[in-house]
Amino acid sequence: MPYLVLDKLTKRFGQWLAVDNLSLTVEKGELISLLGPSGCGKTTTLQMIAGFLDPSGGRVTLDGADLLAKKPNERGLGIVFQSYALFPHMTAAENVAFGLEMRNIPRADRDRMVKDALQLVGLGAFGDRYPRRMSGGQQQRVALARAMVIKPSLLLLDEPLSNLDAKMREEMQIELRRIQRTVGTTMILVTHDQAEAMALSDRVVIMNKGKVEQVAAPQDAYDNPASAFVANFLGRTNLLQGTLRQDGGGCRIDVAGTAWPVAAELPAGPGVLTVRPEKVTFVDGAGVPGLVRARVFQGTQWLFEIQTDAGPLTVIRQHDGQILPAENERVTVGWRAEDMRVMAGTAGGA
Ligand SMILES: Nc1ncnc2c1ncn2[C@@H]1O[C@H](COP(=O)(O)OP(=O)(O)OP(=O)(O)O)[C@@H](O)[C@H]1O
Ligand SMILES: [Mg+2]
What we know:
The protein folds into two domains: 4-228, P-loop containing nucleotide triphosphate hydrolases (Rossmann fold), CATH 3.40.50.300; 239-344, CATH 2.40.50.140. The chain contains eight helices and 20 strands. The chain has a six-stranded mixed sheet with strand order 6-7-8-3-9-10, with helices on both faces. The longest helix is centred in the middle third of the chain and has 18 residues, at 166-183. Strand 17 and strand 18 (311-318) form a beta hairpin. It has 350 residues and is α+β, with helices and mostly antiparallel strands. Helix content is 24%, strand content 36%. It has helices at 42-50, 92-102, 107-120, 136-148, 166-183, 194-200, 218-223, 228-233; strands at residues 4-13, 16-26, 31-35, 57-62, 65-66, 77-80, 154-158, 186-191, 203-208, 211-216, 238-247, 250-255, 258-262, 269-275, 281-282, 288-297, 301-308, 311-318, 330-334, 340-344. The structure holds adenosine-5'-triphosphate and magnesium ion. Magnesium ion binds at residues 42-43, 82, 158. Magnesium ion is lined by residues 42-43, 82, 158.
């Protein structure tokens, strides 16, 4: 049975439809990421679950109970906001202890739990510090400890790692994942960072303009994007404009003079072929001709920008000693039919 249910959740700000009929079910213990461009409605969705914004329509239930009927402080949720407002007149430890005091946890337990929580976020030695004497990343970790210490039934995280440096961020990602696995906390994580979402989530929800575009396990969404928008948003991809046609052998798409078989039955007319940069190879035989516009060394890999008649194409090749084309060289590129996805329509219509 689903644990959290969002049913046609909608939020209007005047005429503006910020969240549009959003339905989603989350299982107990699951970590779900809301992913999408700035302004697509992620924070608004979280705020409605938390109770800081009233929905214009729809329902939210947690463990079968109507969540919207409860006041925010009665919902038992842990929340880390995009702006991680700490109480400025309280030390880090007092900030973390606040939720436990509200719940009348005995002093001795409280001190131990606060200590553990600060330890967990790597701030064991910072309990006595005031927020104004901490960096943005440290304050963010205090906010995380404050939300987790109450062992919430549901943890809502809005860009909780945005102010951390790359190394700390990676450590906290692993830590979050570990907590989620061991404690079994159900989490909804909002992030701009698609790599973070893919690394952490059981499932990702890709949002666009207040609507859900796709809900899937990260690898499924990456390999089988439901739309050109998802393909483009989740990692780098190539969108090549082509023409779909039907012939005796079934459906095909013509891209820059090469015909590729299409497994799905799509209507004749404009079509978009998507293929990930790491799936494109330089070939000797038939393929799409192009010109190497740029070649960039990125440490473990090389990145190529190829100009073709169907549009620019990005190619990523591992740095493993193979001989690779130079800038301004004429090349032919190809990919396996099973590595491409084809959709009807134009790339701009995503
Ligand atoms: N109080 C408000 N009044 C009017 N419009 C609002 C209000 N809050 C949010 N919006 C609008 O609703 C849309 C969704 O906002 P939201 O904060 O949910 O976006 P987001 O996906 O969290 O973006 P970001 O990634 O930038 O944080 C935006 O277009 C925003 O301008
Ligand atoms: Mg936001």
